[in-house]
Amino acid sequence: MHAVSEVRATLQSEYVRRLRKIWSSELSGKNKVFATNMLAVPVLLYSFGVLKWARKDLRDLDIKTRKIINMNRSMHPNSSVARLYLSRSIGGRGLQSLERLHDRLVLGLTHEVVNFTADEDDFLMQIVHKHENAHKGSFLYKAAIYAARTLSLGEINALMELRKEEFKSVIRNAEEKLLLGELMDKSMHSVFFKHVRDHGLSTQLTFSFLKSAGLMSETEGFIFACQDGVINTLEYRSKVLQVQLPDTSCRRCKQHPETLMHLLSACPVLARGAYIQRHNAALRVLYYYLRHCYGIDVTPVLPYLPGDIPQVVENDSCKIYWNMPFATTRRIDHNKPDIV
């Protein structure tokens, strides 16, 4: 027993060491998650189903993982935990939860052992097969029963009768359903997801930025914090942190409550300057792309280089206008398009 504890301690130490290396590196957010899943998690993975792991130990390791990510400015401390483990295709970050990975692997091993059909010469596997089928109370079968209950999969006997492909699909869907349920139960964290769902927006397009490896983990974490609504605005301090404040009005316009959505897109003071700068900064990418496509710039120009953009540039095949007012035959209030 003492030797098993030493092995577990060694594995945990190595897992944390690799985790610190990965999240303090210069990798992008997506690649840090992939590196964690491929280089750090397998340190513990191969011991699941062989060593007996207490759920508290795995839960503590998951907490330790999130702390390390937070220490490296890649996750807000109040961001949704469920989103960290959801697939990137549906708005998560795709990190493997050790607790749920343990459940999945234990269920898979139990399914393999219970449904084992091999040659009679494989005496060792036959013994394990008979032992598990007889429900002798081994830790593997007990762990599988608990894992099935955690995932709300019902009786384990019915689960073991499924075909291998169907069994994997059931486990995967149950994990996703559980995580989405945890997310939707949070009144604040679920606001963005409910907005996407209620307005019929495309989940694939909404979260397509997560499939790119171009975002740094700090940027990715900040975007998630914004979507989860945990940015430290006055409304957040008052309603969530329960801080007594004399006034929660926006500190810029003094007219509306200082919520995240107000600061991002609805403040009349910021609309006169900051929003325009943000809009133009995004549009510069398209502008310089068009200049290069139509041969005005032979060599591509970096869109974020300082300097003003000329109102008109042209060559033999193209003329591009930037923020140029146009005269019209009838009155139009907004006659200054961004790009023409």
From TrEMBL:
Taxonomic superkingdom: Bacteria
Protein's UniProt name: Reverse transcriptase
Originating species: Vreelandella titanicae
